[in-house]
Every structure is written in structure tokens, then in C-alpha cells.
Task: structure prediction
Amino acid sequence: MRLFILFVSLVVSIPALADTTIVSLNRDTVYARYMTRGAWTKPLFSKERLALTDSALKYLPHDAYLWQQRSMPLIKQMKYEVSMQYMDSAVKYNPDKYQGYRGVLRCVFQKDYKGALVDLLAAQRNFPDGENMDHPWDYWASLCYLQLCMYDSAEAAMERVVKRDAAIGKDWGPYLHSFYYGVALFEREKFAEALAQFELTLTRHKLFADAKYYKALCLKAAGKKEEAIALMEQAERDLKAGHSFDDDSSIYEKFPYQITDWMIAGSLYRLKE
Result:
């Protein structure tokens, strides 16, 4: 009788044991089951998506890309600290790929500019010609320097960016590179040089309200008040029409020096005094 009871107890306990045991699955199977046919079919901010990604991570806890996927929806919801806990794991398991990327996220989303510089400068040391989100490391570092009021460093970093662009081709270069070089020069009160960069930016993005705004301020500094007012009014119209930043991340976050309606209104008021 005792042996029978022991046998029944063992049989009953087996399913419970199986429920807590992770059966080994290869990477392709995990991705197909939990990501391709799972998480990636669910809305970006849904609990189902996060849960399916968690399931994939149970099988592949050292997969850096899965940690990045777990982090990404959270950072776009401005849940920065929680998101970065997952991003830290992505960097842990693949620092070459994700440390610079984490630096960009810290710059654009989290606004942790000192922390961003640590990551960006490390990535630059390891991969001097590398880039992330279509911009070189110096571009992102320059944005951090601007936000830390380190304008000389911002100018030097962005100068390297535009020189790199020029080496590729005389007329080549993303409009944001010349724009932020102009901003750095503007902050150093090099208004004539800044004006030239904003004019170059406007040849690349003719309706870019932000460039018109800062160009108008340069005209004001040069004593050209009427031209400044006319251009500031253009910037106002262009901004209302939606002609501002179109970087992929700008739909989630405002970028440094991105203008607003109230900035234009205040500048126009002072120009017309």
C-alpha cells in the first residue's frame, strides 16, 4: 500500500515539474515561435508583446537583440529607467553593437548627456568610422555637448562631421549636420559663420522652419532687423505647416534646439518692439 501511494505521488508530481522546466530550443525556433509569429504581430505597446519577448528571453537569456527588443517599446513610452535596465543587458552581451546605440538613446530619449558621452566616446574609440541611426558618433556627441553648454566641444565635433561629409562629396550632407554646426557656431556668437551654415541647411531642406528661426536670429545680430522679421514670419508659417524635424526619432522626442510656436512668438515680439 505504501509503495502504491509513493508511485501515485511521483506520477502526480511529474506534470508540475515539467511546467517549470525550460526545454532547450534552437535560436531559429525561439525567434519563429515567440517573435516572428508572436511579439512582432502584437501592437508595439501591448502587454502581449512584452510577455512574448520575455518568453523568448527565457530560452535565449544571452541574446543581446532580444534585450534590445524588450527595451525599445518602453523607451518610446518615456519609461526611461526601466527601459535602460533591459538595454544594459543588450550592451552586456554585445557591447560592440549596442554601447554606441545606448549612447544615442541616452542622448535623444533619456536626456542623460553625460552618460551618453561615456557610451558614444567608447564606441568612437572602438569604431572610429562607425555611426548609428545614419549619423556618425561625433554628431551625437555634439548634441550632448550643446546640451551641456560645452559649445567649443560641440563646434569641434560637428566641424569634424561636416568635414567628413565634404570628403564624401561637395554637395553631400544631411541637413541636420549643417544645422547643428550652425547652432554650435551661433552659441559661440560666430554669427556670420552660423548664418552661412543655416543658408546651406536651407538649400538641403528649403522649408525647414528651425533653420529659418536661427538664421533670423543671426540676421538680427547683424543689425538686419527687417530681414529678420520677414524670415521669422516665414519660420512661423512653415512650422505651422509641419516643416520641422523629420528624423525617425523626432516623432517620439523633441531634439535639442527644436523650435516651438512660443519661441517664434516671443522672438517676433522682441523683433517688432
